[in-house]
Amino acid sequence: QFSDTGSRKEHVKVTSEPKPGFLERLSETSAGMLIGLVTFLLAFYLLFTNEGRALRTAQSLDEGLSLVVPLDSIHSISQQNEGRLVHLAGALSTSKPLFDPSYGLSIQAVKLKRNVEMYQWVEYEDSNEYEENGEIKKETKYSYNTEWKSEVVNSRNFDREIGHKNPSAMAVESFTAVSPNVQVGSFVLSKGLVDKIDDFKQLSLSHLEDPHADVTRGGDYFYHSDNPRRPEVGDLRVSFFYAGLSGDDPHLGSADKVTVIARQRGDQLIPYHAKSGDVLEILYPGDLSVEEVFQKEHESNTMKTWALRAAGWLSMFVGISLMTRIFYTLVDWFPVVRDLVNVGLKAFALCVASSLSLLTIAAGWLFYRPLWALLLALLSIVPIVVARSRVPPKKQQ
Questions:
Q1: How far is CA 26 from CA 32, 33, 134, 205, in A?
Q2: Is the pLDDT assigned to residue 93 strictly greater than 50?
Q3: What is this structure's pTM?
Q4: What are the φ/ψ torsions at residue 340 (nearest 5 degrees)?
Q5: Which string of b and e fits 61-94 if b means at least 16 CB within 10 Å?
Q6: Cα–Cα distance between 43 and 59 in angstroms, integer?
Q7: Which of 305, 257, 306 is nearest to 284 (CA)?
């Protein structure tokens, strides 16, 4: 079946294969058990190391807050602060503008990014499996649409390349230019601090002319196309983004301000190695006080900690589910029993994953906060107690 709706095309493909036998399904389940075991063990590592990382980062931040020295001026360098952790805020500045001569564009900024997109065919799949006449049939609908994409889409992997062929490369490459010297006042930022300046904004091209005869400006894009309103596959459009405006611009406004906490070494701002083991090299946009900066860092640490805890618990739940899948396979010939076993295995995985996750987190806190570790260990018993309380008592003999 084939249909064409404007630039979107689609067709349906049906494949079938014999329903797998018991031994084949058992073999697949055994392979899943091995994957589940690896996932299960990785969950322990992730949960345990995450707690140590979180506590180490919190201690490093507390140490930094107690030692940081706010600078009175960003335009003079005091030898008294040599080697110390300092706090300063001010406007960004760079030695010379960044430019793209191919499009006649220049800007006084820390970073300039050229983003190139090509108009290409994109394939989408929508599959549906069902059983019919003792066979497993898979109905897949392939749809094709033309879209602007930053990466080359390999049409050779399409189910039907004929009529949907894309070029193998872009005639113009994307790139990001970074200023070699970035300062706040008289202080030069380290590479690590410059890397943190990544709040990219699209650059307006309204004040620029068409750079070449074969390039047309439309809105905030340069088009390599005969008709930008009706592009063809292989046409290009180019946009620009900047981060860290470092000079007053008549179209973009004043230079961006940043707040930095780092170690002073001469006129350099470099990483500070805390006694707790972490590296303090902090940069935020805007003018923030010392307390605001460290509060944001603590909030970031908390969010990262909970995200990794959730990932560790999910990894453990999936691992246990895969390792116990064999019990489902052994009874999947009996619909009612199969459904009951499936519910029971999911409940088992949920309770065990929750208990083991809490125990692992408690072990990570044992050497730092033993009281909290004990409370978490006691809390890990709750899921098992709840699960046992839902099991009906045996009838009296």
A1: 10, 10, 19, 61
A2: yes
A3: 0.80
A4: -65, -45
A5: bebbbeebbebeebeebeeeeeeebbbbbbbbbb
A6: 25
A7: 257
